[in-house]
Amino acid sequence: MKKLSKIYSKIEHFFFAPSHNHEFLFFFRVAAGIIIILHFLSIYGDFNQFFSSKSIIPLDIMATFNQDWQLTFPFVVKQLESIGISEATTLLATKITYIALGISIILGFYSRISAFLLLFIQISLMKGSSFFIYGADFFTSMSLFYLILFPSDTVFSIRNLFRSKPNEPTHYMPVKRLFQLHLSIAYFFSGFDKLLGFNWWNGESIWKAINLPYANRDFHFDFSWLADHSFILVLIGWSTIIIEMCYPIFVWLPKTRKIWVILTISMHIGIALVLNLYYFSAIMIVWNLTNFYFEETTLATHKPSVLHALFVNKKKVFKLT
Fold first, then answer.
1. Closest CA to 144 of 125, 159, 170
2. pLDDT tens by residue, 220-279
3. Of 50, 201, 248, 312, which one has the fewest beta carbons inside 10 Å?
4. How far apart are CA 206 and CA 232, in angstroms?
5. Separation between Cα atoms, residue 164 and residue 147, nearest integer Å
6. The predicted structure's pLDDT at residue 94
7. Where are the alpha helices (DSSP H) in 43-172?
8. Is residue 37 within 8 Å of residue 99, measured between CB atoms?
9. Element (DSSP H or E) covering residue 300
10. Whole-number mean pLDDT of the chain?
11. Model confidence pLDDT, tens digit, residues 150-160
12. What is the pLDDT at residue 128?
């Protein structure tokens, strides 16, 4: 019983330990909001070619993998046209609303509501244009989801200017732990997937990646010399596997947390510079900093809850009865 009590106490302390470190809420809200807006602005000029009826890929082809019941952007456009709202008007309103909601998130003006509405728009765009989406879009959706869960507009926000009473303390630790575990699991299985195939063992995957037709287009690094030094490709491949698979271990240890966050961020910087995946790398760097840069090295003193007290004194209660 004592062992179970200790385990319960540790789990409770892990998820519900009080914390006064609110800086990560402000950082995540602003950083994620800026990346979301910049990512949208990068395709703003080609928005109609991606999401309108004149898309470079016909809508009937893009709808191949969609179900009739899915609320995709083309479906929304079609329904609005049935009540007299033109496609051009819907496209313009979507652009303006997307940017306005992103700005609201950054400024902290009802960020949860803004994130919810933006998530609705973003997913409808993704589902309606599945051929154009990639990792950054999925992590954008997940970032908006966490912005809905986090009380991020309670810290350094415009909304606070309209509050007549000071903010009451908000217990966000369960959501933060969920976020941290999510990131740890994602990295582990990403590395585990690479470990299963031999392409990452011998550096072949690295060689293919740096020679993709759409990679290395901005800085034009000369990687031809790596053909005569294949051991470097092998080293990079195994380093990636180790960094990702060991992430759930070393990022949780205070002594190794800083170095592992640095290694992970360095990996994403390399991905950004070589593969030109700037927004994917940026959002992953923000996730790492949000979850573990602001992590407290020493948690607040644990005070057992009422439930824990009842659990500990369970035997005494039964004896009295």
1. 125
2. 899 999 999 999 999 999 999 999 999 999 999 999 999 999 999 999 999 999 999 999
3. 201
4. 10
5. 24
6. 96
7. 47-51, 59-62, 73-81, 87-107, 111-128, 135-149
8. yes
9. none
10. 86
11. 988 888 888 87
12. 82
Q: What is the pTM of this model?
A: 0.86
Tokens of 289: 């900093």
The residue whose two tokens read 């313009």 is 92
Q: CA angle at residue 249 from 245 to 255, to 5 degrees? A: 130
Name the packing angle between helices 111-128 and 73-81 (round to 10°).
Answer: 90
Q: Are 162 and 213 in contact (CB under 8 A)?
A: no
If you compute the radius of gyration of the chain from its CA atoms, what whole number of angstroms results?
A: 24
CA distance 115 to 140: 11
Where does the pLDDT of residue 168 fall: very low under 50, low under 70, confident under 90, or very high at 90 and above? low
Which tokens go with 38? 């910049």
Is the CA virtual torsion 76, 81, 82, 84 positive or negative? positive
Instruction: Provide CB contacts within 8 A for 96, sequence distance 6+.
Output: none
Contact 20, 173 (CB under 8 A): no
b/e code 134-144 from CB counts within 10 Å (16+ = b) = eebbebbebbb
DSSP 64-96: GG--TTS--HHHHHHHHHTTT--HHHHHHHHHH
Task: Give 301's pLDDT tier (boundaries 50, 70, 90).
Answer: very low
Cβ neighbours around 211 below 10 Å, total: 12
Q: What is the C-alpha to C-alpha distance for residues 63 and 58, in angstroms, rounded to an integer?
A: 9
Q: Which two tokens stand for residue 196?
A: 């299963």
Tell which residue, 132, 137, 120, 12, has the closest CA to residue 72: 120
Lookup: tokens for 304: 């057992």
